[in-house]
Amino acid sequence: MAYPPHPPETKNTWHRPDPSFTYLLSFFLLLTSLAWGLAWRPTPSSIVRLTLTFIFIHFLLASLLVATAMYFLVGRLLGPGVAGLPGRRRQQGLFTQEQAAAELEFGYCFD
Length: 111
Prior knowledge:
Layout: H1 20-40, H2 44-77, H3 106-110
Helix pairs in contact: 1-2
């Protein structure tokens, strides 16, 4: 059996660049909020408002706020240059590879 000569190159990142999970979760939130709105809201405009609130405020805005807070918190408390944790040696992980500057990827926090 013949093997390819070299493994495929990666983008040297830890997060997935495709937003498919966000789209799927937003779609299921849309279905859930429509069902909730049909059961509890009297008018079609209030159902649409509820649906948009669920998706854009409760899901996306809250996710962005938590990801931003964790991006700064983890970057400051657990960054590669932070001393204070015994036996600490970070080679790889949440931060970029050794060749690049050691900083946390926001996409990884949002994932």
